[in-house]
Amino acid sequence: MQKTELIIQMGKIILANAEDLLPKYFAIYNYLENEECSLEQPQKEFCMQTVCIQMFVNYFYSVYLVSMSGALKATDRREQQAHLKYVNSYIIEGYKALWGYNKPGRSMWGKFIKKYWLVKEDNVFDSDIEAITNRLKEYERSALTDKDERDLAMHYQVDKGSNPRELLKLEDITIEKELERYEQFGIIFRMMGNCITEILDHYLVQKKRDELMKLHPILPPLFPFDQYVWESKLAEMNVVMTRNIACQSKTFGDCKEQLLKWPKIFKKIQAEYKIDLSDCYDILPTSEAMLAITYMSLDLCSTLKLYFNSSLPLERAIALSRMNIICYSIIDRVYGYTSRVGSYWERYLTKPYGEDNLPNVLLEIGHVMETCINTNLYSNEKRLVFVHLKKENFIPAIKMLYTQNPLKEIENSIAIVKVLPKIQRAIKESLAQIDKNIKNRNAKKYQWVDGYIEKFAPYKDRSGMNTIYLSLLELKKGNVLEALDIVKNSEIGK
After folding, report:
1. What is the Cα–Cα distance from 297 to 361, expressed in whole angstroms?
2. In whole angstroms, what is the distance from residue 210 CA to residue 416 CA?
3. Considering only CA atoms, which of 327, 310, 321, 331 is closest in space to residue 404?
4. Are 29 and 83 in contact (CB under 8 A)?
5. How many CA atoms lie within 13 A of 89 on its CB side?
6. What is the mean pLDDT of residues 311-333?
7. In sequence order, what are the residues at sequence separation of 6 or more whose Cβ sits closer than 8 angstroms to the Cβ of residue 127?
8. Exposure winner among 74, 85, 210, 369, fewest CB in 10 A?
9. Is 312 exposed, middle or buried (CB count within 10 Å of its CB: 0-12, 13-18, 19+)?
10. Predicted local confidence at residue 418, as pLDDT
11. Single pTM value for the model
């Protein structure tokens, strides 16, 4: 417990420091980009790359820390899992941009080293740079996991058409492993921060102090008053989100159990009774969609809870950017932005009914999705900037981070949280409709039983005949499994 509290407190200090640093370095970068900066070209390019490193490391590590903080503060195991998958993903994303895996020469740190060798004036920083480089190499060998986990976390599936059941793999991510990786990377973060600060002081600040003193922040302040709008509702929202997480956690467990059991049950029945249950397999994809919806709901509720429980503007801003990613993905997967083709709406929610006979709950869901789309808060461009911590993405990401619309983001997120249980109920009703459609098809298939029902009706009260008669009645309704159960139970009774 003491270790957890220490990590959380240290995280707050680092986030508060990053909130102060990012606008300053953003202004310096803008100054270096312009002609007003009188540095010679090699030195100018080196200083720009160095400032980029400083901004990127602080931005990336802040996003990473917010995820870790959410995991450590979680009160539910699946809430912790929702944050842990981002801990796992962002360390992979950030490290890839910083060091580049098998292409370090193209990475941010690799380019920094190349530019350093072109302008270096003495050997003062050589040993520090070498030590950091060696740490980065060692971190890749000892701490990074498979990329599939990152893809599942950020896309909810490896691709849009694949199996939501793949999400179950994310349960293998553990807090113990992530804490170990966090501690290892924390050393690199501190070494890099100290080294870059000293290099910038030596190569830029000491030479251009007067020009730098005249710079003004370009980024606006991070909406420090957004929580006051919600102040009267903070406790209520925390309770609501905690309750939602607990409810969705149970639903997720139920979905997981069903998906693991149903294929075995179908296989056993087919083998034992030699009947075709291909229609019944239509139930499985819909159940997998239910699993994905539940997972999305856990994700969004956990992020909203993180937002409402934070007193740090930068942490809340990062939580908002994550909400944007999640809501975009939910709208895209469930409904689709410009087309319903391939969405859960087309494949699972409306398919059993037909577009002209949709129940009211689906019309209501469609209205909420359209309303969120029309706010223009979500775009693939913004999602890509926030998801991919790439060297070409992080500057637009920082700018977007400081210019979000917190009240509208929260309003949309809450609207989606409220509609997700309705989507789950709609999926259950869709399952019932699929079952009804199967029975209707079976009823037509088994019309031949009418003649047998007429023959057995006079003898339906006799021992043995009653079982056959009741099973025939179920077949007439299309209830194949129920008919088999009657016969099976009768045999067991003997």
Report:
1. 18
2. 50
3. 321
4. no
5. 25
6. 94
7. none
8. 210
9. buried
10. 95
11. 0.85
